[in-house]
Amino acid sequence: MRRRRLNQQAEDAGEVNLTPMLDVVFIMLIFFIVTTSFVKESGIEIERPESSEASPRPDAQVMVAINANGAVWVDGEAVDMHRVGEKVAGLVSDEGSVVVQADRQSTTGLLVEVMDHLRESGVDNVAVAATRGAN
C-alpha cells in the first residue's frame, strides 16, 4: 500500500502544469492585439495638404506616396513612376481601393500622371489623401 502511494506521488511530480504558461501566452496575445496599430501607412513621411471636405477612408488597401522630390512609393517601397500602375494592380483586389498621398510640395502634374497610370492598369477606386483643415 505504501509503495503504491510513493509511485503515485512520483508520477504526479513528473507532470508539467501548462495552465500558467497558457495564461501568460494569452495575456501577451491580447496585449499585442490591443497595442497594434491597424492604420496602414505609405512608408515615408508626407506633409498632406489640408481640406475642409476630407473624410476618412478605412477601406484603403494600398497606399501610394509621392514625396516632395517626386519619388513614388508603394507600401514602403520605392517604385518607378511608369511602373506604379502594374505594381499596384498586382496588390489591390477588385473591392479594394488605393489612396494616393501626395506631399504638399510635390507637383500636381506628377499626381495626375500617377493617377493616370493607376487607371490605365485597371485600378478604378483611387482617392487622394488630405488632412482635415478648417478651410
Provide the descriptors you would attach to this structure in a database record:
alpha/beta; five-stranded mixed sheet; two-stranded parallel sheet; 4 helices; elongated
Write down the domain tally: 2
Along the chain, the helix and strand elements come as: HHEEEEHEHEE
Could you say what the CATH architecture of the largest domain is? Answer: 2-Layer Sandwich
Total DSSP E strands: 7
Uncertain ranges? none
Average pLDDT level: 77
CATH first level of the largest domain: Alpha Beta
- Total of DSSP H or I helical runs spanning 4+ residues: 4
Strand line-up across the major sheet: 4-3-2-5-6
Q: Indicate the structural class.
A: alpha/beta
Considering DSSP H and I runs of 4 or more, what fraction of the residues is helical?
Answer: 25-40%
Straight-line distance between termini: 89 Å
What is the makeup of the main sheet? 5 strands, mixed
DSSP strand content:
15-25%
Q: Categorize the overall geometry.
A: elongated
The Cα radius of gyration reads: 26 Å
Per the CATH scheme, the topology name of the largest domain is Nucleotidyltransferase, domain 5
Describe the structure.
The chain is an alpha/beta fold. It folds into 2 domains: 34 residues; 83 residues, Nucleotidyltransferase, domain 5 (2-Layer Sandwich). The chain is 37% helix and 19% strand. It is built from 4 helices and 7 strands; from the N terminus they run H-H-E-E-E-E-H-E-H-E-E. The strands form 2 sheets. The protein has a 5-stranded mixed beta sheet with strand order 4-3-2-5-6, covered by helices on one side. Helix 3 crosses helix 4. The chain is elongated, with a radius of gyration of 26 Å. The protein starts with a helix and ends with a strand. The model has no long low-confidence stretch (mean pLDDT 77).
